[in-house]
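YM 10:42: Secreted protein sequence, as discussed on the call
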Amino acid sequence: MVCFRLFPFLLGTAIGVYAAQNYKVPNLRRLAKRYEEEYRTKPEIAGEGRKKKVQVEIDDEEE
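YM 10:58: structure's back
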């Protein structure tokens, strides 16, 4: 009974080791870290991302 559960695990491990040694398998940790850094939202610095409001004074007085 244990043999039926252990065999697929060992077979998968052996195939994974063979593939990692003979083929160019990407490093998933480095790839995930690069994607995370690229798409991470950066915190906004107070006032930097906002547009400044310009107040215009209108003179209603006629000369």
